[in-house]
Amino acid sequence: MVRVRFDFYTLACFAVMAFAVAGAGSAWAGEPARKADSRTIVSYQSTLKDDDNKPVAGIFQMQFELRRPKSKKAFWKEKHWVAIDNGHYSIALGRLTALPKNLDPKTAIIVISMPGIGEVLQESLSGEAISSEPSLAGGGDGKRIVPYAEKAGFAYEAEKAANADRLGNFTAKLLQDALDELQKRKVKVKVGRNQVNLSSVGGAGGTPFEAICPPGMVMIGIRGGAGIYIDNFQVVCAPLE
User: Fold this and answer.
1) What residues form DSSP beta bridges with 230?
2) Domain total in the chain
């Protein structure tokens, strides 16, 4: 059994967007201002490497949890299919499950786990002990505060593309419906009469022979015996269904 170790370099970014609609103008002077609608989005970035310290690539299911210090119970959790490209990935947390509005990154602990592997990371969400990358965010205490449209929005679109919920202009449902329709038609398949002979290989010697599958069948493999040279050769055919 091969054991895989995951090493993470973590950067968590916070953004709070508040949209307030208040009364304005003489026509609205007597109407009280409506309560602001705000949400918290965490734009989380990290890297993933294997035991050989090489970047990992692929799409993995990951669960993100937030806990309080010295607590094993999560007060927030969210699952995502995460696309990892050359070891790097970015994900917007808080889109599927609302984050607490009073979330404090300095007291929250983020825990990441993967099915079949378990917990792979646990650290302070503020990540103060983690080196920052100026190319991703600024320095100082505000290095983790970025606009939602700049970071989390891109992460959201990247995850949608990684999940491949569309193929060109076709959704998964449209493709499945088209496949079901073709299966209902029971389209018959037949082998065409036009043949293509590829160039021969090897020398000019030997006794010529020809092996063709019976009508309605196609070649699916070969079998035979060989030492230094090929002693015998047999074509394996199967019917089209």
Assistant:
1) 226
2) 2
**For residue range 30-43, what is the model confidence (pLDDT) as tens digits?**
444 444 446 778 88
Tens digit of each residue's pLDDT (9 = 90 or more) over 12-66: 443 333 333 344 444 444 444 444 446 778 887 877 777 788 888 888 888 999 9
Residue 98 falls in which region: left (phi positive, over 0), alpha (psi -120 to 50) or beta:
beta
The letter for the amino acid at 203 is G
* Residues 226 and 162 both lie in one domain: no
In a domain, 174, yes or no: no
Phi/psi at 23 (5° precision): -70, 145
On whether residue 199 sits in a domain, the answer given is no
Single-letter code of the amino acid located at 103: L
Residue 29's domain spans which residues?
A: 11-167
Nearest to 64 by CA among 17, 3, 108: 108
- Per-residue tokens: 230: 């090929």
Query: Is residue 226 located within the same domain as residue 114?
Result: no
